[in-house]
Design a protein that fits this description.
By secondary structure, the chain is mainly α. Helix content is 74%, strand content 0%.
Amino acid sequence: MPMKLQLPPGAKLELALPWVPKLELALPWVPKLELGNQ
């Protein structure tokens, strides 16, 4: 079961883009995506 199938596009970006976590500070919807993943 590849986790990628369970993760939204934003989550996939986190694996490839090191600056995505930084966006969490500026974008209110990023934490919401993480809650959806869990």
